[in-house]
TrEMBL record:
Keywords, comma-separated and alphabetical: RNA-binding
Pfam families linked to this entry: S4_2
Protein name from the UniProt record: RNA-binding S4 domain-containing protein
InterPro entries: S4_RNA-bd_sf
Lineage: Bacteria, Bacillati, Bacillota, Clostridia, Eubacteriales
Record Gene3D superfamilies: RNA-binding S4 domain (3.10.290.10)
PROSITE patterns (alphabetical): S4
Origin species: Flavonifractor hominis
Length: 70
């Protein structure tokens, strides 16, 4: 599994915004669909809440790519 670090300068970033920011999805609509379809994991657990707050220390997985938020 590939992994990369994502540095954020705010307290948190919403899950759908993170996916768009990192280019894993093209649009917010695609992010919504993929999250609600159960394709995204946060810290190893499937997450279906697109507004989930992702903070430093969290990891997000989609399509075999892990994003480690720092």
């Amino acid at each position: 599994m590939q992994s990369s670090q994502v540095k954020i300068t705010t307290e948190y970033i919403k899950l759908e915004a993170l996916l768009k920011f990192e280019g894993l999805v093209e649009t917010g609509g695609e992010a919504k669909e993929r999250i609600q379809a159960g394709e995204v994991s946060v810290n190893g657990t499937v997450c279906t809440m697109r507004g989930k707050k992702i903070r430093p220390g969290d990891s997000v997985t989609l399509d075999g790519l892990r994003l480690d938020v720092v």
